[in-house]
Amino acid sequence: MAKATEVRHIGIVVDDMEEALGFYRDMLGLTVARRMNEAGAYIDNVIAEPDVEVETVKLSAEVGPTLIELLRFTRPGTRMPEGNRALIVGPTHFAMTVDDLPTLYDQMSAKGIVFNCPPQTSPDGKAMLTYCQAPDGTLVELVQML
């Protein structure tokens, strides 16, 4: 039986690429691995939408092969979901391991990033974590292993 062998990337549609890069690159410390624009029959077929134009930025962390792929559709444009994203069927959030959560929390809070709560220690005492919202509303779980 054929099978998946690796998680390649997580795709996140954003409305403002520079604002998204300010969050993922500048605040979380990810590195831009590739930046490109796509249009034409190939991307129209893949997205199943006519006349697509998309700017794509792939970001990597220091550890692990999985990338975060930011996509900004200049054609046909983006659509925002309604309601609490944590309750929407489908992906609700993704998690990133960080090296110093209390400091990162303070730095990001000072820049206006919204958190669900201050860092919390898990009941087993093995991790400290919190959720924050990226500028596009994506929920990001930040985890520091203790």
**Overall body shape:** globular
C-alpha end-to-end distance: 39 Å
Strand content: 35-45%
CATH architecture of the largest domain: Roll
| Broad structural category | alpha/beta
Rg, Å, rounded = 17 Å
* Separate helix tally: 3
Q: Which bin fits the share of residues in helices? A: 10-25%
What's the SSE pattern? EHEHEEEHEEE
CATH top level label of the largest domain: Alpha Beta
What is the CATH homology-level superfamily of the largest domain? 2,3-Dihydroxybiphenyl 1,2-Dioxygenase, domain 1
Which stretches of 5+ consecutive residues score pLDDT under 50?
A: none
CATH topology assignment of the largest domain: 2,3-Dihydroxybiphenyl 1,2-Dioxygenase, domain 1
Average residue-wise pLDDT? 90
How many structural domains are formed by the residues?
2
Number of strands: 8
In the sheet with the most strands, the strands line up as: 1-4-3-2
How can the largest sheet be summarized? 4 strands, mixed
What's the topology here?
Layout: E1 9-13, H1 17-27, E2 31-39, H2 41-47, E3 53-60, E4 67-75, E5 93-97, H3 101-110, E6 120-121, E7 127-133, E8 139-145
Parallel strand pairs: 1-4, 5-8
Antiparallel strand pairs: 2-3, 3-4, 6-7, 7-8
